[in-house]
Write a structure and sequence with these properties.
Length: about 170
């Protein structure tokens, strides 16, 4: 589905800078990326359409000074390589923290209540005698691997459900 931005929005952006916009559903290959980004100083992209920022591509884009990644995670981006080419990186560290944590808890609740089996049983996909008896989460222990923004929020939500939470982070 293409990204829809109002004309007023584009007019405001065009008044501030020379803006080129291209909607992509997947990352461009290197040749297409060079063609699309030649002369670009700031690249703004989502993970869905971010080209592989390797040394060859960066060398072909000498004007590039910054990458704005509309995402929280950037472990797939070689920050040191960007810095070596004089390119900065900006991300949205708080984007969707609550939504992702809530989704994790929703999945946990679905498993605890055997919701997936209830769904399958109602459609005759599992034996009619399959137990739908779930478990109570209160009093159980939740392990959280990675206690950054999202992991910390998952831990808070787990505690709100009465769970004991154990967390670990590699950093």
């Amino acid at each position: 589905m293409p990204l829809m931005i109002s004309c007023t929005h584009w007019l405001r952006l065009d008044g501030l800078a020379d803006v080129r916009y291209r909607a992509l559903d997947q990352p461009p290959g290197r040749a297409e990326a060079v063609m699309l980004l030649r002369g670009t100083q700031i690249l703004a992209a989502t993970n869905r359409c971010l080209p592989e920022l390797d040394a060859t591509l960066l060398a072909a884009l000498p004007d590039l000074r910054a990458v704005v990644l509309y995402a929280t995670g950037y472990d797939h981006v070689d920050v040191e390589l960007l810095a070596a080419h004089g390119v900065g990186l900006s991300v949205l560290p708080d984007y969707a923290t609550n939504a992702v944590a809530e989704h994790a808890i929703a999945l946990l609740l679905g498993l605890a209540t055997r919701l997936h089996l209830a769904h399958d049983r109602s459609r005759g996909l599992v034996h009619a005698g399959t137990s739908l008896r779930g478990i109570q989460l209160a009093g159980r222990t939740m392990g959280v691997l990675g206690v950054g923004r999202i992991g910390t929020r998952v831990a808070q939500l787990g505690r709100a459900l009465g769970m004991r939470v154990v967390g670990h982070d590699s950093d």
